[in-house]
Amino acid sequence: MGAEVVGGAPMKRILIPDTETDLTAIRDELGRTRDIHYFHRLEVLRYVLQGHSPYEAAEVFDHSPRSIHNWLHRLADRGLSGLQDKPRSGRPARLSPSQLEQVRQDLLHSPRKLGYDQNLWDGVLLSHHLAQKYSVHLKVRRCQYLFHELDFSLQRPRPRASEANPAEQKAFKKIRSANARPQCPAMVRR
Question: Is the pLDDT of residue 181 over 90?
């Protein structure tokens, strides 16, 4: 049994011939997909196919009725595949895959080995290195993201006072931990 979905005065009615089949397919697809936008569209359309108007769905899901009407058209014309996002090209990468691999190899070495006056890599140094070696100008924040993309993490050494005595520090820590009060009676081990 088909259902008519009323889109309102300015929108044409959409005839969905077999709502039960579509509902079953949507339920199956909801369990499979990891794409959040596609998942959301499926949720909205499931709500509409269960008998609610696009206007009610727009109110509940905070969308325009026109968007929901468009999704219904896409479902009727192309099926579930019509609800998925098309691939988008995005901004072209400034570094080629081979250059990225070379940067990864550079980061495995100490900056001093590559002629810099620092012991550790940071966003500023990586930005400078990319400009010098690859003629690619990236901002510091983008270089910090690049560390993450290449599976590196920012690690800094703990500062130590040059006149500190490690034996005295260890003794101080032992005294301090022995005198510490428990924070909460429930947290004390017995």
Answer: no
Q: What's the CA gap between 126 and 131, in Å, rounded?
A: 9
The per-residue pLDDT for range 146-165, each reduced to its tens digit, is: 999 999 987 777 777 777 78
Any idea what DSSP says for residue 4?
A: E
State the CB neighbour count (10 A cutoff) for residue 7.
20
What is the domain partition of the chain in residue ranges?
3-83, 97-149
Residue in the block written with tokens 């901004």: 91
Rounded to whole angstroms, the Cα distance separating 175 from 177 reads 6
Please list the alpha-helical segments (H only) found in the chain: 19-32, 36-49, 54-61, 65-78, 97-108, 123-134, 140-149, 166-179
CA distance linking residue 77 with residue 67, whole number of Å = 15
Using the predicted structure, report yes or no on whether residue 123 has a pLDDT greater than 90. Answer: yes
Q: How far apart are the first and last CA of the chain?
A: 68
pTM of the predicted model over 0.85: no
Count Cα neighbours of 22 within 13 Å in the Cβ-side half-sphere: 28
